[in-house]
Design brief:
globular, 7 helices, single chain, alpha/beta, 7-stranded parallel β-sheet
């Protein structure tokens, strides 16, 4: 089998991406410190046409060389907004009719494999690489989604978590259109 060339992939331009229909999903980064993780979330959000990325607290906004290194320009195609306080982002999303779910290991969390979105708008909150989603933010969320894990470690890298959850929601939300 032959690998496809970039010119054969028929990708849309950043301008066409801005106009394209998006899935009804906003990704909220709650104090994510690694610029490489931020860039990776942008790139994954571009791949699956996420509506926007909200950067909160210590999460650095573009332009940043380290974000660009992993985003490869997706920070220019995906809409984003910065909030000093994650709670302000959650409140804005809820006021706009979003169901806001923390991606966290928590009491009463729903396993990602069991999470079945309906025909509404969703936001997922991903937390700090060590401390996870802030408890005050957890309290403001409508629900919590958990990725089942079966090894010895208790967590995944935030960019890996984003990829798994975004892909899962993309595949399920796309079927509802």
């Amino acid at each position: 089998m032959r690998k496809l060339k970039i010119t054969e992939l028929n990708r849309i331009t950043p301008e066409a991406f801005k106009l394209a229909e998006k899935i009804p999903l906003v990704v909220v980064l709650d104090n994510v410190r690694s610029l490489h993780n931020v860039g990776s979330v942008f790139r994954t959000s571009d791949a699956f046409r996420v509506a926007a990325v909200y950067l909160c607290g210590i999460t650095a906004p573009p332009p940043q060389a380290e974000i660009h290194k992993t985003a490869l320009g997706a920070e220019d195609s995906v809409d984003w907004k910065y909030f000093e306080n994650t709670l302000d982002a959650v409140r804005e999303l809820k006021a706009a009719g979003f169901h806001v779910a923390a991606v966290e290991q928590a009491e009463n969390s729903v396993s990602l494999e069991q999470f079945q979105p309906g025909k509404q708008k969703y936001a997922i909150v991903l937390g700090h690489e060590v401390h996870g989603v802030d408890q005050e933010v957890m309290n403001a969320c409508d629900s919590s989604i958990e990725i089942p894990q079966f090894g010895t470690k208790h967590s995944l890298n935030v960019s890996v978590t984003a990829g798994i959850v975004i892909w899962t929601l993309f595949s399920r939300l796309s079927r509802l259109r």
